[in-house]
Amino acid sequence: MSAYVLDAGALIALERNDRAMWARLQVAAASELSLLVPSTALAQAWRGGASQALLARALAYCDVAPFDPMARDVGELCGRVGTADLCDAHVALVASRVGDWLCTSDPDDMVRLLAACPGKRRPIIVRC
């Protein structure tokens, strides 16, 4: 499965009507790529209400990757890297397992986390 993984920064960019981010979303949605949002990234960005209408529209194109099946793996990754940021670790694990691209506002942390993920898949990191 080819996938484009979005972190909370990417979701916030969509919410702020960032044209480049919307273009990425539309290209990915029109292709054979799956758009994945780790549930922890969604929780970090979502506050509800009318002010998030653009984000709600963007999420209609996305699938949400659940946290529960990865909870132990996320905790182990946090331990290996020495971080307490469960959201970033969850995003990195989802991207390392199914992502071909990872759209993130924090590429430095993602490079470090991806390097510690088991497996050989290394998604292309796109700054948003």
Q: What's the CATH class, please?
A: Alpha Beta
The CATH topology annotation reads as Rossmann fold
The amount of helix comes to: 40-55%
- Quaternary structure state of the chains depicted: single chain
| Structure classification | alpha/beta
- Share of residues in strands: 15-25%
Overall geometric form: globular
Q: Can you tell me the CATH architecture?
A: 3-Layer(aba) Sandwich
Instruction: Give the strand line-up of the largest sheet.
Output: 3-2-1-4-5
Residue-averaged pLDDT? 95
Integer-rounded radius of gyration: 14 Å
- How many domain modules? 1
Please identify which CATH superfamily we are dealing with: 5'-nuclease
Query: From N to C, what is the helix and strand string?
Result: EHHEHHEHHEHE
Number of helices, counting only DSSP H or I runs of 4 residues or more: 7
Low-confidence stretches: none
How many strands, which pairing sense, and closed or not: the largest β-sheet? 5 strands, parallel
Distance between the termini: 23 Å
How many strand elements? 5
